[in-house]
Amino acid sequence: MSDTPVVQSDRRARAPNHVVEDKRGRVRHVTSMPATIVISHYDQIPCIVRDLSDGGAKIGLSRRYVLAERFWIVIRHANVTRRASLMWRRGEFAGIAFDHPFE
User: What is the end-to-end Cα distance of the chain in Å, rounded?
Assistant: First the structure.
């Protein structure tokens, strides 16, 4: 047997709802909550909230969906409905900022 310790990547080591601090000093809750992006009454996009802070979130969604610059997001599990703006998009992930942070 080798004396070399086994190191897991940071992604695998994270537990659900783990709390981390981002580059801007905000506390983010790493999670995996289903959510819905609401473009209009008839246009809704399913997504997964990957981390959540008082000012925004990182969401995962299929590459096939095109996001508008502004939309509503509904996170039923957290009882949250917020107007949001798209800040960035890379592949299957997007960063969004809420118009009004949590109080």
Answer: 53
β-pair type (70-75, 80-90): antiparallel
73: CATH: 2.40.10.220
Taking only Cα atoms into account, the Rg of the chain, rounded to an integer number of angstroms, comes to: 16
pLDDT (tens digit per residue) in 20-57: 555 666 677 888 999 999 998 889 999 999 999 989 99
Closest Cα to residue 31, out of 49, 10, 13?
Answer: 49
pTM: 0.74
Residues 78-90 pLDDT 10s: 888 999 999 999 9
53 lies in which domain range?
A: 22-98
* Domain-embedded: residue 16: no
Distance CA 58, CA 101 (A): 15
